[in-house]
Amino acid sequence: MEVKPCPKRYFDLDGCTSYFYALYNLYPSEFEIKHIDFLKHIKDFPDPILKYVALYFYYNYSVAKDYFTGESGQNDLACHNLNRWLDQHKSFFTHSEKCEYNKNQWNINIEPLWEKNWTLLHAINHNLKMIFVMILQKKIVLKLKRIVMKLKIYVMNVINFA
To answer: Quick one: how far is CA 122 from the chain centroid?
Structure first.
């Protein structure tokens, strides 16, 4: 599966960076969270700003997941821009890393979310691959059944003509 750097109309204008900047700065007031475990995890964060950052990190990750390569430690534009978005929020929250308490809270609560989101993305990709394999296997089984039926008919015709 080839991963696009960004939508074609932006890519053609060499505007992928602008696309992700705009995408990661939308801040919708409502969006769907499909992974309840993620919500359960962040509800215990000690600071409402950390919860806010975590929610929008989830949102940004989910709307751009088609542009991630799907590899740990990836180096693509979607990942790079999401890291920039996170770094900006980290700088605000930690007062440019001058507040030790907030810096520790960030490291404890936000940093592990990359791994959590990576795990979710990997699970989703794995499930999609498994569904594709099941569909493919079902098609193969149906084709084999048709071939066997045709073969039976052919054999019966050969026997009847002999």
So the answer is: 7
pTM score over 0.85: no
Residue ranges of alpha helices (H) inside 65-110 are 77-93, 100-109
CA-to-CA dists, residue 23 to 54, 81, 87, 110, 111, angstroms = 16, 10, 16, 20, 21
DSSP assignment letter at 66: G
Count of alpha carbons within 13 Å of 50, Cβ hemisphere only?
22
pLDDT in tens, the chain (162 residues): 455 667 777 777 677 788 888 888 888 888 888 878 888 888 889 999 999 999 999 888 888 877 776 655 556 778 888 888 999 999 999 999 999 999 999 999 988 887 666 555 555 555 555 555 555 556 666 666 677 677 677 666 666 665
